[in-house]
Amino acid sequence: MAIYQNGNKLTTLYNSGLSVNKGYINGDVVFDKGGEVDNSYIEFEIDATSGTYIIPCSGYAANGSAYSFKVYMDGVYSGDIAGVVNSNTGTGNTIIFGVTDTKIIRLEPTNGVTPGWGIPFGYYSGTSGCNASSNKAKIRRILNDPDYAHLSSETSTGTYFRHYQYINCDLTNTVNESLPNSVTTIGNEFRSHQYDGCNKLKSAPAEVLPDSVTTVGSNFRAYQYYRCATLKSAPTEVFPDSITRISSNFRAYQYRDCANLTSAPNEVFPDSITSVGTNFRAYQYYRCYRILIGDFIHHHNIINILNAHSSHYSNMFYINVETNLDPDTVPRYYTDASHTTTAPITDLTPSVRKYYLQNRTGIDGYEE
Length: 368
What we know:
Layout: E1 2-6, E2 9-13, E3 18-25, E4 28-36, E5 42-47, E6 52-56, E7 66-73, E8 76-84, E9 92-96, E10 102-109, H1 133-136, E11 139-144, E12 185-186, E13 207-208, E14 215-216, E15 237-238, E16 245-246, E17 267-268, E18 275-276, H2 293-297, H3 300-308, E19 332-334, E20 342-344, H4 350-361
Parallel strand pairs: 1-4, 12-14, 13-15, 14-16, 15-17, 16-18
Antiparallel strand pairs: 1-2, 3-4, 5-10, 5-11, 6-9, 7-8, 7-10, 19-20
């Protein structure tokens, strides 16, 4: 469930595959209804000045599977492409076009709109074929890429949902997430490394999970924005209260090395969580130099989860969280390698404290 604003009216929205944009009214999280998501096509913009481009069909979750798409360029049908996904060799199809500034490429399924028809679309971590750095540098904007096209079934994302999909691409923007409310299970590696190395991406898409989700697998969004050096803002996190269990490596290293991220996102996190796997939010903001500790201290619902499941906690900022932490409590740091003894950060001398915060946590400062 989420809340959206339509004009001056606030309305409850049970997510049904709607695109959303986040906003705030009196400090509360709201969403503007963005319209229905069209599941029947994938559309993106490329730099067309070099004359060739390899359409990426290396989606890891489809490795070894056949694919078949209808291709449109600037709205004109160009023919069908087909093949078998081989993520490591960079499966794709080369298109040749006259030199222009940009072109809009649209992919449609040749065999009808069903869950997972678009899973082959995407890059992988290799450097050959469509995964060559010169080819990844050509993609500019994602205009439509519905989550429905990447599901393993009507009710499950399957494993490796959008895993490494846009790694090391020159994307400047992407689209909001749009899981349909038929999905109950989020599998392992959900969006892991999805935008890894996209160092021209300035903002992350809105995150809203539907109320139908009950299970979240391991490595949820792990390394999702790793090395996105130009990313300045992170989306509000909205988790439905239908979820009670979170598996291991939840959001581990999600924003690692996002040196220009200025604040941790707002939290909409349920009290329904009863079980948390190992490495919960491990190093989530590691080396995010512009984020202050104070941004984290005010996330009371996360603090409560960390207190209740402290044995599973690997520090978001590499700093321990004191029991019953409140906004006036001084953060603490580990004084031993086994992470059993802590002391207030204020015990450190100013110069040592600055070194600790910058080099051990990636935090640029601390206001006493």
